[in-house]
TrEMBL record:
GO biological process: D-alanine transmembrane transport; L-alanine transport; L-isoleucine import across plasma membrane; L-valine import across plasma membrane
Gene Ontology molecular function terms on file: ATP binding; ATP hydrolysis activity; L-isoleucine transmembrane transporter activity; L-phenylalanine transmembrane transporter activity; L-valine transmembrane transporter activity
Protein name: ABC transporter ATP-binding protein
Matches recorded under InterPro entries: AAA+_ATPase, ABC_AA/LPS_Transport, ABC_transporter-like_ATP-bd, ABC_transporter-like_CS, BCA_ABC_TP_C, P-loop_NTPase
Species in which this protein is naturally found: Lichenifustis flavocetrariae
Record Pfam families: ABC_tran (PF00005), BCA_ABC_TP_C (PF12399)
Family, similarity comment: Belongs to the ABC transporter superfamily.
Length: 279
């Protein structure tokens, strides 16, 4: 279980996260949504050790992460993807995955879902990488340089890299951003396949259609605070949430209906209401 316990983050005078508490349970997919600037990425960055918290605790299965360096956080079982892809362009896909491998003493979490081996040798580690690539439909890209891949393929490699680390919590920061319809549908299937009893999955997204179809529960953030928390059904009908997005009731229905008819990606810019991202 991943817990944000009364977490605050200030950047100078700007309070990006204001006393936020979240509980991300294993076995379910938890989405964190909210308009641009709400603080979603800041939460991920704090959990993964890119930003220090100003106050509060972040616990992964009772291990306090907030003061640990990044590599120890990874070893504790947290992995993430980035809003802006961060692969090593000059390395092959397999090498990019191998970089993420951590000591094999971690519990066997997503092994069942992804068919990973319980062993610890280098050969087995490489075989795990190949297995994950296969599950994501990109085994044929293993020897290609990451920098030579199409954008959608790079997004999948990032996902693969997060998976091979055998996390207990995986944080996906806008995995569908810039993907087309087909790629988003594929991604949806991969996220659903990740669901396993020992893995806490956090999905940060602007694509409402994707969120509403894969999430078990949703936290809605606005201006650094939690505005609402509940099932997709409860969030869909929440008046405060609708107002936070568009400043008017009925917005969630509008967003979803529009998402079905147009491109998948929705960007909600602070103060500008709804706009369509053009990948
Ligand atoms: N490195 C930083 N330095 C200063 N301020 C920052 C930094 N990172 C984020 N912020 C501020 O923190 C607040 C929350 O930003 P954050 O990126 O977490 O929002 P978000 O919900 O992820 O938005 P988006 O959907 O656009 O990614 C914003 O006011 C932002 O300007």
């Amino acid at each position: 279980m991943l817990v944000f316990d009364h977490v605050t983050k200030r950047f100078g005078a700007n309070t990006a996260i204001d006393d936020v508490s979240l509980t991300i349970r294993p076995g379910v997919i938890t989405a964190v949504i909210g308009p641009n600037g709400a603080g979603k990425s800041t939460l991920v960055n704090m959990a993964a050790g890119s930003f220090r918290t100003t106050s509060g605790r972040i616990l992964l299965d009772d291990v306090a992460l907030q003061d640990l360096p990044k590599y120890k956080i990874a070893r504790a079982g947290l992995s993430r993807t980035y809003q802006n892809i961060r692969l090593f362009d000059g390395l092959t896909v397999l090498q990019n995955l191998e970089v993420a491998l951590v000591p094999r003493s971690l519990p066997r979490l997503i092994m069942q879902a992804f068919g990973l081996s319980p062993g610890s040798s280098e050969a087995e580690a490489r075989s795990d990488c190949e297995t994950v690539l296969q599950r994501l439909g990109i085994a044929h890209l293993g020897e290609r340089h990451a920098g030579s891949l199409a954008y959608g393929q790079q997004k999948l490699v990032e996902l693969a890299r997060a998976i091979v680390a055998r996390p207990r919590a995986i944080l996906l920061d806008e995995p569908a951003a810039g993907l087309n319809h087909g790629e988003t549908d594929e991604l949806k299937a991969h996220i659903q396949a990740l669901r396993s009893p020992d893995l806490a999955i956090v999905l940060i997204e602007h694509d409402m259609k994707l969120i509403m179809s894969v999430s078990d529960e949703i936290y809605v953030m606005a201006r650094g605070a939690v505005l609402a928390h509940g099932t997709p059904e409860a969030i869909r009908g929440n008046r405060q949430v609708q107002e936070a997005y568009l400043g008017q009731p009925g917005a969630m229905g509008t967003i979803e209906a529009a998402a079905r008819g147009r491109r998948n990606r929705i960007r909600v810019r602070a103060g500008e209401g709804l706009a369509w991202g053009q990948p």
